[in-house]
């Protein structure tokens, strides 16, 4: 689990990759990262707090480094899905 978080964090640090991420890629990535945070099994892991911290950092970097229009569009799609 921590390896996935580290990889995601490293990808988010690469400005070119983050900026070129489409709305749908951002939507899927943000959705899955938030799903990890909401999973109750995370508390049962030995390094659960570290995983949660890593995911939070990855989401922050993703939002910070990505194209703001695509971030807003992906958030809009996610919120729309929640309302259905």
Structure notes:
The protein is mainly α and 84 residues long. The chain contains five helices and no strands. α3 packs antiparallel against α4 (48-65). The N and C termini lie far apart (30 Å). The mean pLDDT is 80.
Look at the structure and give the mean pLDDT: 80
Helix content: over 70%
The H/E string reads HHHHH
Q: What share of residues are in beta strands? A: under 5%
End-to-end span in angstroms? 30 Å
Summarize the helices and strands and which ones pair or pack:
Elements: H1 2-13, H2 15-20, H3 23-38, H4 48-65, H5 68-83
Helix pairs in contact: 1-4, 3-4, 3-5
Keywords for this entry:
single chain, 84 residues, 5 helices, flat, mainly alpha
